[in-house]
Amino acid sequence: MEGASQLMRKLDYPPVWLAGTILLVWLETRLVGPLLPFAPVQGAGTALLLLGLALLGGAALSFWRARSTIIPHQTPGVLITSGLFRLSRNPIYLGDALILAGMSLRWGAVTGLVLLPAFLWVLTKRFIEPEEQRLRAAFGPEADAYFARTRRWL
What we know:
Blueprint: H1 2-11, H2 14-31, H3 39-66, H4 91-107, H5 111-139, H6 141-149
């Protein structure tokens, strides 16, 4: 039982949750076929996918420039409040959500759209809320001021 617990801790990262959800979406398209096989829907999916990837890349670049950790379970050494983080406290998680929605639309799958609220809930409960607690502990009033002026998602 302890081995399973250690494995879960090693796998408890947003990209793993995203990959698992995308796998379910892909399985739907293979087992049932596309339920939304319309070119405009697929085009919108491509746009969301590219926007999500751009958010991920831009946010990762901000962490790299700040020489801070991007790993969710660690406390960053710097409170990043500029660039994309001026618009959203969680551009990486927003990018993950856009990637899931984009892949779902590209593949014409309904599962991903149905799972999207659950995916956002998992991100919020497992990652965002604990990260906000670590940021408050590390940066105190500076973090509180940032949280007050910047929305969690958009």
